[in-house]
Specification:
Jelly Rolls; alpha+beta; 2 domains; 47% helix; 3-stranded antiparallel sheet; 17% strand; 309 residues; Arc Repressor Mutant, subunit A
């Protein structure tokens, strides 16, 4: 396998209107993974992958884990990862993307604290698992995939119920704290800092404050963070702010000044500069492309795929 370049790409995905998940299915996903893309990426949504056939490795942060048929991948929004087929071979993965914050909001309308704690727990780390070794989880994921593929009457309701069963299995996995720390040392060590950033992005965040959250010296924290996330802490902070700004641009009529302020940027110029760096276009161009694509959401699987250079 080729060595991963020191680059991470941010991919902003959208769930089609009215759908419980974004499903990426079909023969287009039979490919030699990693042949043309040699860098890590992460998403704004929770990713669930299922391998029909093929072998290779999945890179989750610092870990390289072999995959094979019936492998299940679960990746939280902020974990850099990629999939590489064995050289010269193809694999067939199908993918589901879930907005867990929205899902939990629907389940914990009157209990936001429980929602916050569960979200924090399930986003601590990622997993690559064998379907044979985790039959309950395997059955639930296959059930969601088949419901999303066939779209039989009441499939949306059934998917929502299956997502609740999937969440239960995921919580059981995340309770194995020793295993989490063993398999994902870097991302587990900085999970408190990542949570702090997601909650405090509107404020000025100093690196020493993040180090305190993880009980590390500032210099050690910087090294661990960059090893695990393939970027500097400030770059990640700005990335989270850009991710939030995309939600404002798509779902509100806020002015660019208001979006910049609501996303934690000190000025519109800083917002524009960082947005273009992450999304490869200006906020105005991105918003216009969203408005143009809105009428086609029901007919496409993925409405945008922007890279972070």
């Amino acid at each position: 396998m080729s060595k991963q370049r020191e680059k991470v790409e941010f991919r902003y995905y959208e769930i089609p209107n009215g759908e419980p998940v974004l499903a990426l299915f079909g023969e287009g996903w039979i490919r030699e993974y990693g042949r043309h893309v040699k860098y890590l990426h992460f998403h704004n949504l929770m990713e669930i992958g299922y391998c029909h056939f093929g072998t290779g490795e999945v890179v989750l942060g610092q870990e390289r884990i072999p995959f094979s048929p019936k492998s299940i991948m679960i990746v939280p929004p902020r974990l850099p990862h990629t999939t590489n087929s064995e050289e010269g071979t193809q694999g067939y993965w199908e993918w589901l993307y879930v907005d867990m914050e929205q899902v939990l909001c629907n389940w914990f309308v009157k209990d936001p604290l429980s929602k916050k704690n569960i979200l924090k727990q399930i986003q601590r780390t990622g997993y690559l698992l064998s379907g044979d070794e985790h039959p309950s989880l395997f059955r639930v994921i296959i059930g969601i995939i088949e419901e999303a593929r066939m779209k039989k009457p009441y499939y949306k309701d059934n998917i929502r119920g299956l997502l609740q069963a999937w969440l239960t299995e995921l919580l059981r996995l995340s309770d194995a704290e020793v295993n989490v720390m063993r398999r994902r040392p870097h991302t587990a060590l900085i999970s408190d800092a990542l949570n702090y950033i997601s909650e405090q992005y509107l404020k000025e965040i100093k690196i020493k404050d993040l180090a305190v959250q993880c009980n590390m010296s500032e210099s050690h924290f910087r090294r661990v963070f960059e090893d695990g996330m393939k970027m500097k802490p400030l770059e990640y902070i700005n990335l989270i702010r850009i991710q939030q700004s995309c939600e404002f641009l798509k779902n509100t009529e806020k002015s660019m000044d208001e979006v910049a302020e609501s996303s934690g940027f000190a000025s519109v110029s800083a917002f524009n500069r960082n947005f273009k760096k992450v999304m490869s276009c200006s906020p105005y161009q991105w918003k216009k492309s969203k408005e143009k694509d809105e009428n086609r959401l029901d007919h496409c699987q993925i409405s945008t795929h922007k890279g972070w250079q």
